[in-house]
């Protein structure tokens, strides 16, 4: 060990040639490379304005589906939250008020339904676990935001609007967008 620490290596500085000392050839070579790249197709895209086309099976932002009559399909069984490996789903169930169950068919609903998009790994297990086909992963990507709490999506963002219903049968054929 002692022998190693006492060893020293002398690195000789290489003398630059006359051409190298002029720098102009090196600058010229650099300009040629830059010029060549100006006419090549750029591999980068202007995300988020431009987005790449995803595979039809791509899973992105979730949506909570409504049934044919417009009622929320989710019956707050909690299976999605149990199946979620990232523990990203928070759900609080509530019973319907007397008389309401006739209107909504199911006697329970999710009073609170939140997904933490920072925890979610978009595996789709919640969708697989749901017995009511109430949760569906679209091909929308999660937009960038400045606050961590903005990544917690509540029912206001998750429940699909009446006029923008999603045809879930399109999953295997084409991309399904929230705003389609
Ligand atoms: S996609 Fe996966 S990680 Fe995300 S909420 Fe559903 S089960 Fe959890
Ligand atoms: S989304 Fe489906 S699995 Fe999750 S609580 Fe609602 S009905 Fe149950």
Mean pLDDT: 86
Strand order of the largest sheet: 2-3-5
Pattern of helices and strands? HHHEHEHEHEEH
**Helicity, in percent?**
10-25%
The main pleated sheet reads as: 3 strands, antiparallel
Decide which structural class fits the backbone.
alpha+beta
Q: Key features?
A:
180 residues; two-stranded antiparallel sheet; Alpha-Beta Plaits; alpha+beta; 13% strand; elongated; 5 strands; three-stranded antiparallel beta sheet
Walk me through what this model shows.
About 25% of the residues lie in helices and about 15% in strands. The chain has about 180 residues and is an alpha+beta fold. The protein has a domain at about 60-170: Alpha-Beta Plaits, CATH 3.30.70.3270. Strands 2-3-5 form a three-stranded antiparallel β-sheet. The longest helix has 15 residues, at about 25-40.
Q: Could you outline the blueprint of secondary structure elements for this entry?
A:
Elements: H1 2-6, H2 18-22, H3 24-38, E1 62-64, H4 79-83, E2 89-95, H5 100-104, E3 108-116, H6 125-129, E4 135-137, E5 152-153, H7 155-158
Antiparallel strand pairs: 1-4, 2-3, 3-5
Bound molecules: iron/sulfur cluster (2 copies).
What's a concise summary of this model?
With 180 residues, the chain is α+β, with helices and mostly antiparallel strands. Helices cover 24% and strands 13% of the residues. A three-stranded antiparallel β-sheet has the order 2-3-5. A two-stranded antiparallel ribbon has the order 1-4.
